[in-house]
Amino acid sequence: MYDCFGAGQQVSQHTFGGRSWREDTALAGRMFEVLLTASDLVRAQAKGKKKNYREADLIGKRLTGIGLTGADFRGAYLIAADMRGADLRIADMIGADLRDTDLSGTDLRKSLFLTQFQINATKGDTETRIPQALERPSHWS
User: Considering only CA atoms, which of 103, 45, 43 is closest in space to residue 74?
Assistant: First the structure.
């Protein structure tokens, strides 16, 4: 289960007047679309072409030192991927599986929907930059 820092609650409470997709399943598609649109609007601020890795199988892939600012990693499988030195600012990370991903030297400061649960499952180092709201895992070197 992933936490999106209250984005779903904001959509439910403010955009849909407190209604829940669990109680009114007809709302689910519209609510999820609002989250997608919010991500698209924020990621549009990133310069250059944005890479789309939504639901991609990137298990064990080497993605080192490349600019991934504004990329879409929603639901991507990044298990044991090598992302050392990548720029993941404004990248959408909701539902991305980051187990054993090497984030050494990676900039995640403004990643979207990145959770503590995801960060805890990764490898990192003193050069890895994470959002202020998250805690650096004790197992990082």
Answer: 43
